[in-house]
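Model the whole thing, not chain by chain.
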Amino acid sequence: MHWAPPVSFPCPSERKENALLLSLKSLTKTYRTGDKALVSVSLDIPKGQVVALIGPSGAGKSTLIRCINRLVEPTEGQVLLDSVDITELSSSGLRRERRRMGMIFQEYALVERLTVMENVLSGRLGYVGFWRSFLRKYPQSDVDEAFRLLDRVGLLAMADKRADELSGGQRQRVGICRALIQNPSLLLVDEPTASLDPKTSRQIMRLICELCEERGLAAIINIHDVALAQMFVQRVIGLQSGSVRFDGPPTALTPDVLTEIYGEEDWQATIRKDDEEDAEAAVA
Amino acid sequence: MTTALDTRLGQPWRKPPFIKRVWLRWSVAAGAVLYLIAAIASIEVNWSRVYEGLDRGAAFIMSFTRPDFISRAGDIWDGMLESLIMTVAASVVGILISIPIGLGAARNIAPLPVYLVCRSIVALSRALQEIIVAILLVAIFGFGPLAGFLTLSFATIGFLSKLLAEDIEAMDRVQAEAIRATGAGWMQWINYGVQPQVMPRLIGLSMYRVDINFRESAILGLVGAGGIGATLNTAFDRYEFDTAAAILMLIIGIVMVLEYLSGIIRARVQ
C-alpha cells in the first residue's frame, strides 16, 4: 500500500521557520561503567519543529534528551540553546535555562501525593522564590495560567484531586500542563505513550503536537511506536548504539531504514498507512 | 531437540537444597542441635532459690489485683508529668534535628562529605545504648529530667535520621527528577520532589518514636535521669508492690493510648 503523509494534523515544521533553536555538537556520553550511550551526536533543530526520536531500547534516546537539560551530564560536546552553551552553565544558570525546556516523562512522573494543581504549578518553580513555592502562594497570573491549561486539556474539574487518583491518560495530560506552564521554547518528551493504551496514546500525541503548533514550540519526542510517530511528526531521527543512523521525513522510513535502525524484521506492517486513523482524524 | 526434555518428563521435581553437599547439610543440623543442648545445660539454676522467690513473685503479681494509686498519688502524678514533658520535648527536638541529618544521610541527594558526616552522627547515636548515654549525662548534668531529655533527643536522632534517610534512598527517582527538570532550586526540589514522597513515613516514624521515648523515659529513671522510672524504682526499693503495680499499669495504659493515636494519625496521612 502506498504511504502518504497525514494531512489532517499539520505539525509546526510546515511553517518553514528556519531560525535555529537547538544545536547539538558532537554530544558524547560515556557512563562510568564504560558504556557509550551517545557517540558524537550532532543535530540542529529549528524553532517550532517537532521531531520524533526512534531507535531500539538502549540506543541512547533517553540519555540524549536528558543530556539536553543536563539531568544526565554529557561527557563531551556542546548543547546550544539559542546559542547559549548549556554544558558550560553554573547551577544557577542551568536552572534558568531549564525553565525554557519543558519535560514530559514516560511514567508521567507526577508527584503522586501532591494535588493536580500543585503538580502543574511546580512547573513555575524556576520562576518563583522558595517561600512563595513553600507556602503555595503563586502569583495570580501563574494560577490563572494553570487553570487555563487544565481547562485546555479537559481536567479543570480535577484541579484539587491528588495526582494518584487520576488515570494514566489524565496523568500524562497533567504532565503536559506542568511542562507548558514553564513557558518553554522546547519540549523534551520521553516515551509519552509507553504506558498508555493505543487510543489514549494517539490522543496524547495529538494533544502534544497541537499544543506545539499553537505555541510554536519545538519538541523532541522519544517514541517506540514507529507508526504513531509517522502519523504526527514531520521529521524522524533514528538512533542506534548512540549514533544517528537516519534523519529525514517519515515518508523516507523504508523497511531498509528500519532494518538499519532496529535490525532484521518484517517491517511492512509497521509502516503501512493506517486507514483507521484516517477515519478517526476525519471525524475529529 | 526433545532429548533434554525427555529425560526430565516423568521425573519428580524437588526444590534444590540450600546446602548442596549431603554430609555438610547433616553436620550443620547435628551441630546446631548439639550446641542447643550444651547451651541449655550450661545455664545454672538454683532451684531452692527459685522456690524461695516464688512467694515474692506471687506477692508482686497478686498486687496487680489491688494496685494502689492513692497513697503515693502525688509522687506518681509528678513522675508521670515529668516523663510526659521529657517525652514530648525530646521528641520535638530530636525530630527537628533528625530531618536535616536524615537528608544529609541519604546517598542519593547528599554529596559524599555531607553524607559521611551525617552517617557518622547516626552511627554514633545508634552505637550508644540509651542507658549508657543516660549514665554519662547524669554524671555530667546531675540527677533529674534534663539528663533524660538529652538522652532521648540523642537517641531519637539516630533512630529517625537513619530510617528517614533509608526512605529517601528508596523514593521514586523520576518524580524528583521531574521537579529538577523544571528549574527548581535545591530547597524547592526537596519541598516538592522529596518531601511528599517521604512525609507519611516521617509522620508514622515520629509517632512511633514518641511512643518509644515514653517507654524509655520509664527506664531512664532507674539510672537517675528523672521521670516516672524514678518513682517506680523507689516503689520497688520500698517493697511497695501495690504502688509499683499502679505505676506499671499507668505506663501500659499510656503506651496503648499513644499506640492507638499513632495508628489513627498514620491511617490519615497515607
